[in-house]
Amino acid sequence: MKISSLALGLIFLSPVIKAQNGTGIDAIIVEKYYVANTADVTNSINQGATVPLVNGQSVTYRVYVDMAAGYKFSLLKGNSNHPLIIKTTTDFYNDPNNGVVIGAQATSTINVRKNTVMIDSWLTTGGVAAGKIGVIETEDTDGSLGNAQSILANNPGGIFGDPLNGTNGKDGFLPGTTVSPTTLGFGSAGTASDVFDQSAGGTFSVTNGAMSALGGMLGYGPNNIILIGQFTTDGIFSFELNVQLIKPGGNIADEYVANNPQANETLFPGLTYSNLTVDSKEISKQDLTFYDLYPNPVKNSFEIKMNNINESLNNSYAIYDTRGVLIDSNFLENKSGSIAQTIDMNNYSSGLYLVVVSIDGKSITKKIIKE
Questions:
Q1: Cβ count within 10 A of residue 64
Q2: Nearest 5°: phi and psi at 305?
Q3: Digit-coded pLDDT (tens) for 44-86
Q4: Are 119 and 92 in contact (CB under 8 A)?
């Protein structure tokens, strides 16, 4: 997991959204897997990509479910009460020749080395190529398969870790057994999944469908982590996911939803995500010192107060614990140039938290204590 240190009052990290109780989901992990450079952009253009990569801006995100011990991943789904939404404010990038939509484990290791296949956008039930499972890049112990065109070698450091190709490359692939996904309601031509198959577009939305791993799929390693998707975009990436996990020792399933839980469903906030509050820029303190948190310490809820805000700017907040784990994030509502938004902390454990307020991509952090 790529989490950097807290510095200059700003947080730069790949978020891990942890469970607050003893459920089958321990965390949803969003890994910043790669960022494209000029060589990658040129290759995407030469290969005829419908939506070419953008230098320094096209980021590949991997989404993992960190499950409790013994749990198996069963379904990723959407219905009328809980739509499955994966979106970007621009377009998703897809490799034009050997990319896939669902089931990356069908890709041969020969083809996955070609051009930009390693940063193609797709959904999966753990597999990334034939005989290969997806793992967090920092947990990759066997280096890289390499790249036939010697691209995907960008090494920007920081939260992006190692390049996917080259001397110090790590591709996030390890040998493993995979389960081929079964789909219903998405994954065929003319559906929402076209945005993962060379059709320009930024919204994958399903209200009557599912991707399943029949019999369930265990994750890798002692933490039981499974990769469920990889997405490349130069825009703001976000999702609302709903998953089903099979409990240990039987066929009983648990349902976890992003919002609006019904009977026998568990709300897990980490199933909702936006990178808007993560990609921050360093700024001087004068830019944002005018926001206040009140009361502090807090028993039940606190208020974020700001004045003299340009109404055209994007405003948001994120709350982290002292380990850098993202607890909550959302947009801030701007009314006539002022913000007064109440944040509920009733379900938080006592302790110190960090509140990051972002205005048009500029962020500053303040501390708040939950009694």
A1: 24
A2: -120, 130
A3: 999 999 999 999 999 999 999 999 999 999 999 999 999 999 9
A4: no
How far from the centroid of its chain's Cα atoms is residue 22's Cα?
22
Of the CATH numbers 3.30.300.30, 2.60.40.10, 2.60.40.1260, 2.60.40.1930, which one belongs to the domain with range 285-370? 2.60.40.1930
Q: What DSSP letter does each residue of 247-269 carry, written as one string?
A: PTTSS-EEEEESSS--TTEEE-G
Identify the three-state secondary structure at position 190.
Answer: coil
**Quick check: 274 and 238 in contact, CB under 8 A?**
yes
Tens of pLDDT, residues 87-120: 998 999 999 999 999 988 889 999 999 999 999 9
* Residue type present at position 237: F
Q: Are 127 and 134 in contact (CB under 8 A)?
A: yes
Give the global pTM.
0.72
Give the model's pLDDT for residue 146.
Answer: 96
**Residues of the chain with confidence (pLDDT) below 70:** 1-22, 158-159, 187-193, 276-290, 309-314, 322-324, 360-365
Angle CA 46–51–56, to nearest 5? 85
Q: Are 112 and 145 in contact (CB under 8 A)?
A: yes
Q: How far apart are CA 82 and CA 77, in angstroms?
A: 8
Strand order in the sheet with 127-129: 127-129, 132-134, 173-175
Domain with CATH 2.60.40.1930 in the chain: 285-370
Contacts of 105 (CB under 8 A, 6+ apart): 124, 126, 127, 128, 129, 130, 131, 132, 178, 180
Q: Where are the alpha helices (DSSP H) in 158-304?
A: none
Q: What is the pLDDT of residue 51?
A: 93
